[in-house]
Specification:
Helix content: 40-55%
Number of domains: 1
CATH superfamily: NAD(P)-binding Rossmann-like Domain
Distance between the termini: 50 Å
Order of helices and strands: EHEHEHEEHEHEHEHEHH
CATH class: Alpha Beta
Radius of gyration: 18 Å
Number of strands: 9
CATH topology: Rossmann fold
Strand content: 15-25%
Structural class: alpha/beta
CATH architecture: 3-Layer(aba) Sandwich
Shape: globular
Largest sheet: 7 strands, parallel
Number of helices: 9
Length: 270
């Protein structure tokens, strides 16, 4: 897919972060946008921003954890705008805590938003794309879906699952002419850093936001990746390096991971 002019791009998690930036990037390419989020105010702000730039965007306030709401989303989008040419799953949440301190409610929340919400949209929209014989599905995972990071077990679990889901979906979707990409960002400057619940950790851990890359840069990589039908889209550059070290020497990756975990515990745990 090289030309996005007039194409319909559906983006979940569109009110902020990578979802917002990518929606704007696709709009700049001439695409029509279907914006999905639970954040009504943020969603309308993005829609107005796209409109002010001469783009076209329709907003859908949806709780992606609710099967019936996703079903209604499917019906509303297809009836009002047609079958998406690009489906982008970008909604995401995180919890930072020692695994023994994570309540089951947090596990349910993270897995439902980060994984099952993706499954729901794919369930409803992918079959339409298959029947048409064209399209592209983007699933936003994380570098934490390629190599583990300490004290984010629910997040890591969900993101590893999204990588596996995307790989399996890519293999199956190919025979229908539909591409699939999984996005694995490192630290990106998004609200997830400001809003993440910290259970037992010092507030200073939020300082990682200062080292993060811009969501706009990530968005440009995503648009480029869709054009090239890239299987795994990594950004910034260090993600590829760390992942390469892990693949080349799993033992070294294990040793480094344990050392980083111990250091973080000593520095940040109260």
């Amino acid at each position: 897919m090289n030309d996005f002019a007039g194409k319909l791009v559906l983006v979940t998690g569109a009110a902020s972060g990578i979802g917002r930036a990518t929606a704007l990037a696709f709009s700049a390419e001439g695409a029509r946008l279907a914006l999905v989020d639970i954040d009504t105010d943020g969603l309308e702000k993005v829609a107005r921003e796209i409109g002010s730039r001469g783009g076209e965007a329709t907003s859908y306030v949806v709780d992606l954890r609710d099967d019936e709401q996703v079903a209604r989303l499917h019906g509303g989008v297809t009836a009002g705008q047609g079958t998406p040419d690009v489906l982008m799953n970008a909604a995401g949440v995180c919890v930072i805590a020692c695994i023994e301190e994570v309540p089951l409610e947090d596990w349910d929340w993270v897995l439902d938003v980060n994984l099952k919400a993706y499954v729901r949209t794919i369930h409803y929209f992918a079959r339409d794309m298959f029947e048409r014989g064209s399209g592209h599905i983007i699933n936003v995972s994380s570098s934490a879906g390629l190599f583990s990071v300490p004290y984010q077990s629910p997040y890591v679990t969900s993101k590893f699952a999204v990588v596996g889901l995307s790989e399996a979906l890519r293999q199956e979707a190919d025979r229908y002419g539909v591409g699939v990409s999984v996005v694995c960002p490192g630290a990106i400057r998004t609200p997830i850093f400001r809003n993440v619940p910290l259970r037992g950790f010092a507030e200073s851990i939020r300082g990682i936001d200062k080292l993060a890359a811009s969501p706009e840069g990530m968005a440009l990589r995503i648009v480029k990746g869709v054009r090239k039908d890239t299987a795994v889209i990594m950004h910034p550059f260090y993600v590829r390096i760390i992942y390469g070290v892990k693949r080349l020497s799993p033992r070294a990756g294990d040793v480094i991971g344990k050392a980083v975990t111990r250091i973080m515990y000593k520095q940040h745990h109260l």
